[in-house]
Design brief:
- The complex is a heterodimer of chains A (531) and B (76).
- Chain A has 531 residues and is mainly alpha-helical.
- In chain A, 73% of the residues lie in helices and 0% in strands.
- Chain B is mostly helical and 76 residues long.
- Helix content of chain B is 57%, strand content 0%.
- The chains are: A mainly alpha (531), B mainly alpha (76).
Chain lengths: 531, 76
């Protein structure tokens, strides 16, 4: 069942009706049933993988909790007999036990993801070497369960957080199953944290007309972004990426920019639908985007793009690595060799490279994604290292850092770097992306494609380009208003009934008339579903 | 307190640390800043700030950082 399809609307509508009719204490069970129905329709028997990860995570959390509580109780019961040193030693012993349990859980849950998603990548790369000495590892065709990359990260965060003592483990297996499978966000996130999401499931939610209408507005807006912009711009983008040798450098750059817009409209559209559906149930999901194309640096971009993945990487990879003892030693040694400036920053830079390598690899088992991740890491580190140089250059040229033109330049520069990185993430092979880069350098000055009608031969006629341009402008205006802190949905809700319904009907008509649909009025799948 | 302020000013001279109370919540300090602050605190105050302590409430203000340092010094 596609996320943007009429059966999905029916599922949401039926779930909402039952959700508000049953006694409030059973609302979470309605969501759990709907989530497993949705998962089953999409992945059928692969549901056992979700159940396995859920059970491992749940019992790991419980074990850690029980061991920690026993440890604390022992110290409290023997407060008078134990010296401060004894207490510290006992705490360390308990921590060691919980760490072992946590690491076992992490190993098992991560193992499922790595085996299913990455085994063939590792085997394929190893075979490049092994075939030379007469060996060959087998490869398997695994079918991936829906949202495995997303729910695995949630599970890992949960186990680590329990180990860190951030919150207590869930005692109710049914409610925990809902946290792991909640249907609006299992497809492509946002990657939720237990303490942010689970508590909302356990509260009782009344029907609130304004909240439900605001949720529906968000669903409609997400649907517009997906069907009118993303699925439309996908046509010329695919044409150029699939046949890049036939196009000049400027067209390849345009295809990268088109793909940037496509993936934004697609992914953020999906997030709007997930958040809108959740709002109907009275559940607030985390924001995953904050106007990313208004970013003034690559670092800024990654604070606004796929925020929940960035936050996950920060809390569970970047911080632990940067503050690890080995990285500390590296810092001390490198300070002696390179001086204070580089030495202090080196562990963080190294951790940052590892993070972006993992961000790329998380997207898929392909070198194109790995290079895409590293590309972003390189520009972030360069941005930090060269910041002082930039400031001096700007001061020498008399450019104010608050001027409109400077900000526009920064936005264009960031957009270009990010878009060029997408030549890696969207190309079929690393060779193809390098080929595109080569064409951009040797055939860059051939601008004739912009005016000789090439654009209308990419699968979209003039009318479709105009529709696309209009809706991209609307998207930019909406993002600009959000950037200025305007709450558009509240503004619409406060208008008189006639104006309000003109907007609602206009938006629905726009989706029906201008949306791109396949057979059965289904939209194309979401890009992030495949990750 | 003065020592903490000096360290913070050296890392981010553009922030008014004395008056800002939501350094993390408002996104004034990023993860790079946090790593630099933590490693400098560890060196200067002879403490070990564990990754478990990297919570917004410990770094939102100078006062919160001071409390964290004092607590870790007591526990050491």
């Amino acid at each position: 069942m596609a996320f943007v399809s009429f059966p999905f609307i029916i599922l949401v509508a039926l779930t909402a009706i039952v959700y508000f009719l049953v006694p409030k204490r059973f609302q979470w069970s309605v969501l759990l049933v709907a989530s497993y129905v949705y998962f089953w329709i999409n992945s059928e028997w692969l549901v056992v993988w979700l159940l396995l990860t859920t059970l491992i995570t749940f019992f790991t959390g419980r074990c850690i909790d029980i061991i920690s509580k026993k440890g604390k109780a022992y110290i409290a019961d023997h407060a008078e007999e134990l010296t401060a040193k004894d207490r510290k030693a006992y705490k360390a012993k308990t921590k060691k036990k919980t760490k072992f349990v946590m690491l076992t859980g992490v190993f098992l849950v991560l193992g499922i993801l790595v085996c299913m998603k990455y085994f063939n990548f590792f085997a394929g790369n190893a075979n490049l070497l092994l075939t030379k000495i007469g060996f060959k590892l087998p490869t398997f065709k695994f079918l991936l369960p829906l949202g495995i990359s997303f729910y695995t990260l949630q599970a890992l965060a949960y186990m680590i957080d329990i180990y860190r003592g951030k919150y207590e483990a869930d005692k109710h297996i049914g409610k925990f199953m809902l946290f792991m499978s909640y249907f609006p966000q299992i497809v492509q996130g946002p990657i939720a944290r237990y303490n942010q999401l689970a508590n909302q499931f356990y509260k009782e939610h009344s029907f609130d007309y304004n909240r439900v209408m605001q949720g529906i507005q968000l669903i409609v807006w997400g649907w517009m972004k997906k069907t009118i912009i993303a699925d439309r711009i996908a046509i010329p983008t695919s044409e150029i990426f699939d046949n890049y040798t036939q196009y000049s450098g400027v067209m390849i750059f345009l295809s990268a920019a088109f793909y940037g817009l496509q993936v934004y409209a697609d992914f953020s559209g999906g997030m709007d639908i997930a958040r809108g559906v959740s709002q109907i149930f009275g559940i607030e999901l985390e924001l995953n985007f904050k106007q990313p194309y208004f970013s003034t640096s690559v670092e800024d971009f990654w604070r606004r793009w796929h925020i929940t993945l960035g936050g996950w990487m920060r809390d569970y990879i970047f911080y632990p690595l940067s503050l690890s003892k080995n990285f500390g030693k590296l810092s001390k040694q490198s300070r002696k060799i390179f001086g204070d400036f580089v030495g202090k920053r080196l562990p963080a830079f190294l951790a940052m490279f590892i993070v972006y390598f993992l961000v790329g690899f998380w997207h898929g088992p392909n070198w194109t994604y790995i290079v895409y991740g590293i590309w972003n890491g390189v520009f972030i580190v360069m941005g930090i290292l060269l910041e002082e140089v930039y400031v001096k250059c700007r001061q020498k040229c008399g450019i104010s850092d608050v001027s409109f033109t400077w900000r526009m330049f920064q936005i264009f520069r960031t957009f270009s770097i990010i878009s060029l990185g997408r030549l890696f993430s969207n190309a079929k092979t690393l060779g193809a992306s390098l080929g595109m880069f080569k064409l951009m350098t040797v055939k860059w000055y051939d601008l004739s494609a912009l005016v000789d009608g090439t654009l209308t031969k990419l699968g979209l006629d003039t009318a479709n380009w105009i529709v696309l341009a209009i809706f991209v402008v609307i998207l930019l205006v909406v993002d600009n208003l959000h950037e200025k802190g305007v709450n558009i949905r509240e503004s619409i809700a406060s208008q008189n009934i006639i104006f309000r319904w003109i907007i609602y009907y206009g938006a629905i008509l726009a989706i029906l008339i201008f949306g791109m649909y396949g057979p059965g009025y289904d939209s194309a799948g979401f890009i992030y579903e495949q990750f | 307190m003065e020592k903490i302020l000096n360290i913070l000013q050296e890392i981010r001279s553009d922030i008014d640390f004395q008056n800002e109370k939501k350094l993390i919540d408002d996104g004034l300090l990023d993860s790079f800043d946090i790593i630099q602050i933590v490693s400098t605190f560890n060196d200067e105050f002879d403490i070990e700030i564990d990754v478990d302590e990297l919570m917004p409430e410990n770094f939102n203000s100078v006062e919160a950082m001071k409390q964290l340092i004092e607590r870790l010094q007591e526990e050491a």
